[in-house]
Write a structure and sequence with these properties.
single chain, 180 residues, elongated
Length: 180
C-alpha cells in the first residue's frame, strides 16, 4: 500500500501503521513517516515535473485536463524547448587547454567558445565583454568587490577587470538623487 503524501496528523498516523503492518520496527516506521511528511512541502523541479505530476493526477481521475498548445496558461514551445536544455544549473567543465577560458596572463575570462558551451549547457545568455555602458559598469563594480573581499590575491578576478578595461577599480558611480 502506498504511503499517504500529506503533512496532516492523520496521514502521519496512517503511514506509521502501514509501515508497522509491513513488518518494520516502530522507530523505522516513524522515521519513514517523518521523511514522507518532510518531502511533501518541497518545491518541484520545474516545468517537466509539473507536467508529469498533472498527468499522474489526471490518470488517477482528478477531472483536470491538459491545456492545448497556444492556449492561455499552457507552456509555449519556447518554454518546453528551454526547460529541456537546462542541465544541473551550471555544472559545466571549462578548461584553458580546450580553449574555453583564457589563462590569467591573457586576461582571464571566458572565450567565445566557453560562453557558447555554458549557454548551451545551462540555457544562459552570456555575452562578450563590453567596453562601456551599464553592463560594463555593473561588471566592474561586482568584480572589484570580489577582488576587495578575496582571501587571497584573486589573480583571475584582477585579470578580468583588466580585460574589461575597468578604470578606478570598477567602483560604481554614485548618482546624486534627491530624496535618497
Amino acid at each position: 500500500m502506498p504511503l499517504v503524501k500529506s503533512k496532516s496528523k492523520e496521514a502521519f498516523s496512517k503511514n506509521i501503521k502501514a509501515e508497522i503492518n509491513a513488518d518494520k520496527p516502530q522507530k523505522q516506521a516513524v522515521a519513514i513517516a517523518y521523511s514522507v511528511k518532510r518531502s511533501v512541502g518541497k518545491k518541484s523541479g520545474g516545468l517537466w515535473d509539473n507536467i508529469h505530476a498533472k498527468q499522474e493526477r489526471i490518470k488517477n481521475g482528478s477531472g483536470e485536463h491538459m491545456r492545448k498548445t497556444g492556449s492561455k496558461g499552457a507552456p509555449t514551445a519556447y518554454d518546453l524547448k528551454h526547460s529541456q536544455s537546462k542541465k544541473n544549473g551550471g555544472n559545466v567543465r571549462l578548461s584553458i587547454k580546450e580553449g574555453d577560458k583564457r589563462p590569467t596572463d591573457k586576461g582571464a575570462g571566458l572565450t567565445a567558445k566557453g560562453r557558447e558551451k555554458v549557454n548551451r549547457a545551462t540555457g544562459s545568455h552570456l555575452k562578450a565583454p563590453q567596453a562601456s555602458g551599464p553592463r560594463h559598469n555593473s561588471f566592474c563594480a561586482r568584480m572589484s568587490g570580489v577582488v576587495k573581499h578575496a582571501k587571497g590575491d584573486a589573480p583571475r578576478a584582477k585579470a578580468s577587470l583588466k580585460n574589461w578595461h575597468c578604470k578606478d577599480g570598477g567602483q560604481a558611480k554614485k548618482h546624486d538623487i534627491k530624496g535618497w
